[in-house]
């Protein structure tokens, strides 16, 4: 039986899209470089429906992949070839249970990140991971990529808040994984980029809302001064919850947009620092934080505990990627990491690379944990611009590894970085990773073509041209 005929018997017609116009909106995620429409899109509402759909794909030997709200930045939710079935999880968006006493929530993967914190707020709780796309990104996507966000400096990544999950394997088995004694299979699945199966439920840890939150805005005349202030704060033993930096190009884009936050346009960098905790603890640490911010010559210093003003200060940071739409039709958001002590060098070399390739580069990043987000603005309708953007991105990520970092902090490998893994891992390393993947998906039908390159040497990467995913005119 044809796969689509079988799906028509499993899923109501209003939740199965197969018309070319209907599936076109699923041809790529927030990585705008590669576009491939799926064979069809199915919208399940339960674990049983997901299992039935995966079973149909298994029997028909059809590749499949899951998608949340399409905010991923590495092509993880973009089909890597023709004939893929898309399993759209956005409709599975319920909170199944919220236990305020145990501080846990069991949710479906299509739930928006921010919606969980809003639901937990009446209980004095929240979900700590807060990617900048938290109003639109889903819990399932956060789990797949092990997302972080500005406050991961204090609270950790998504994996630090996942207590259990339900996974439908490519063999159509339903596994209930919880953290506890024995091998941490649950932790292994977090960050799998959708290649181990389809996550249909997640048990999450909630944390108390802080008694006091104070936010500082410190604009600096140089990026070096802002980076040194970050290193000084961390080395001092102080415990801010967030340390974020935006460069001048980002400030200009933000302040000219609907996300304007009042950042000084004359600053070369603005540093956002947030602290949370008790009144007594803040009173003890606040003077030291202010001293260290002032020690590096800020153009001014603004501090507030007022929720409305705090939201204003964060508006520019949270809306930075959206504001980049003023610069060019498309945005390539990188996320290499470097040690904090190498931030200045990494940023300087990134700008040099951008100039060498003739691309417009801006930076907004999680300074506290050295997670850089160099943003390359380009026109994806121009193959030459696409090639320059990819080449610049490749060199920037290679530089991050050379400085002691990695090619990804939270956005994942997806399609974007397949050819860059060789900067960081040997072919032996990669083969071990492939064997692990085959334990979950022996036939490689679940989101194939992602996360790991096909066997064979990739140790040199492709720093001077578009990756293999773009060759042949797909760009």
**Largest sheet: number of strands, sense, barrel closure:** 7 strands, antiparallel
Strand order of the largest sheet: 15-12-14-13-17-18-16
Helicity, as a percent range? 25-40%
Number of strands: 18
The rounded Rg comes to 22 Å
| Residue fraction in strands | 15-25%
Judging from the principal axes of the Cα atoms, what is the shape?
globular
Give the integer mean of the pLDDT values: 93
Enumerate how many helices there are, as a single number.
15
Which ranges are low-confidence, i.e. pLDDT below 50, for 5 or more consecutive residues?
A: 457-475
Structural class: alpha+beta
* Alpha carbon gap, first and last residue: 35 Å
Short description:
The chain is built from 15 helices and 18 strands. By secondary structure, it is α+β, with helices and mostly antiparallel strands. A 7-stranded antiparallel beta sheet has the order 15-12-14-13-17-18-16, with helices on both faces.
Describe the structure in your own words:
By secondary structure, the protein is of the alpha+beta class. Helices cover 32% and strands 19% of the residues. A hairpin with a 4-residue loop joins strand 5 and strand 6 (104-107). Helix 1 packs antiparallel against helix 3 and helix 13 packs antiparallel against helix 14 (383-402). The longest helix has 20 residues, at 383-402. The model is unreliable at 457-475 (pLDDT under 50).
